[in-house]
Design brief:
alpha/beta
Length: 200
Amino acid sequence: MGWVLGLTGGAGSGKSTAAAVLSQMGFPIVDADAVSRSLTAAGGGAMPAIVERFGAEMAAPDGALDRARMRELVFRDPAARRDLEAIIHSRLEKIVAEQFAEAFRTFPIAVYDCPLLIESPAARARAQRILVIDTPEEIQIARLGTRSGLSPDAARRLLAAQVSRRDRLLAADDIIVNDCGRAEFEARVHRYGETLLNSL
């Protein structure tokens, strides 16, 4: 059995880039967002329960989750957010456990790419070590504008809805700062990955 490196960071931090670098180095990646998206895609395992709880209007014409409509609901209704998370969480945990079991057949370390790693007790408990990608907020706001077309105010609201930068850093065992160009950041992640490989 191997061990799990939890990888997290705020929106626009570069977490996905870090995961891609580690994947290229041979580390198996278990992507919580990808699992969650599969559960809410057309025919996804969470869709029947979502429709039962929230109504048929939460399904788009193709049968997938109407993400814009659901996002609007959970932003203004904390109870709806908790219910949605409960529906997805139980199903996500089962799939994630299966993916880790598969990963450890070929590699002693698996990376858990999980945006809500700090907020979720179950996700946090899964990781033996936590790597945080830390980025100054002004850089995150600029990246969210470029990547997602968010206005600075919208980007700030998104960041405010996430766990605070301070809490994320307090939870970290390791930190990689992403305050540089892409090539330098990828080099930093690569050096970190090499350190892990050399420790095996």
